[in-house]
Amino acid sequence: MNAREALGRYGEDLAVRRLTQAGIVVLERNWRCREGEIDIVAIEADTLVVCEVKTRSTGVYEHPMAAVTPAKAERLRRLADRWLERHGGPPAGGVRIDLVGVIVPGRGAPAVEHAKGVA
To answer: Which helix (H) or strand (E) holds 5?
Structure first.
């Protein structure tokens, strides 16, 4: 695993911790199909949550919360449809696309931000 992959994995671990602390139940991590990958598939009450995780170290990179472009949002919606096709259809509460942004500073604690319904 290279440094970039390790940073991403660390960010996903922090995202899972944040989601579970908020009462969201994680069903799967890194679910893959031909069209791509969902970082986290979870359920909150009766809503399926498809969660994209973006992790950045401090520096010149864009803020992770700016990472969901319209094209990325459309891809996440398609991936959610594929997951639902393979897992029995949508729950009563429908589907929500969330983003967890993680900023890992050179020193100190990472900042974790959870935005619900970004797409």
So the answer is: helix 3-21
Least Cα distance to 77 among 58, 90, 64 occurs for: 90
* pTM exceeds 0.85, yes or no: yes
Residue type at 40 in one-letter notation: I
Pairing of strands 25-33, 47-57: unpaired
**CA torsion through residues 67, 70, 52, 5, sign:** negative
* Residue 60: per-residue pLDDT: 57
Backbone angles phi, psi at 79, to 5 degrees: -65, -40
Backbone angles phi, psi at 68, to 5 degrees: -95, 95
Q: Which residues contact 95 (CB under 8 A, 6 or more apart)?
A: 47, 48, 49, 50, 80, 84
Q: pLDDT value at position 119?
A: 79
Give per-10-residue mean pLDDT for the chain (119 aa): 88 97 97 96 96 85 78 94 94 95 90 92
CATH class of 3-115: alpha beta
Sequence ranges of the domains in the chain = 3-115
